[in-house]
Amino acid sequence: MQTAVDIHEMLRQTLIVTVKVGGPSLLASLCAGVVVSLFQAVTQINEATLSFVPKFLATVFALGFTGAFMYSTLYTYGRTIFDQMILVGGS
């Protein structure tokens, strides 16, 4: 039978995996947005669509650069979850 401590650990792992997988692309998009905002503030260009392309390119670059890490993290987490299901009697 599964205990509350095991479920707590699985939820903690889920949150950690979520941050590991989502963090790089969100951080790259945040940095690109800040740089574009500073550029717009300095040059006084108020174009709303100007920030879209740099954010998109930064996100794509981050996903391409960290894709193998994300795959490895998700694969390991998936194996762990399915192993836990087998231990508690899931079929």
Primary descriptors:
91 residues, mainly alpha, 0% strand
Description:
The chain has one domain (4-87). The chain has 91 residues and is mostly helical. It is elongated. α1 runs antiparallel to α2. The protein is 84% helix and 0% strand.
Q: Write down how many β-strands occur, each being a DSSP E stretch of 2 or more residues.
A: 0
What distance lies between the first and last C-alpha atoms, to the nearest angstrom? 15 Å
Largest sheet: none
SS element count, helices: 2
Radius of gyration: 20 Å
Give the proportion of residues in helices: over 70%
Q: Structural class per helix/strand content?
A: mainly alpha
Order of helices and strands: HH
Envelope shape: elongated
Please mark out the parts with pLDDT under 50 across 5 or more consecutive residues, or reply none. none
- Count of individual domains: 1
Q: What amount of the residues lies in strands? A: under 5%
Q: Round the mean pLDDT to the nearest integer and report it.
A: 87
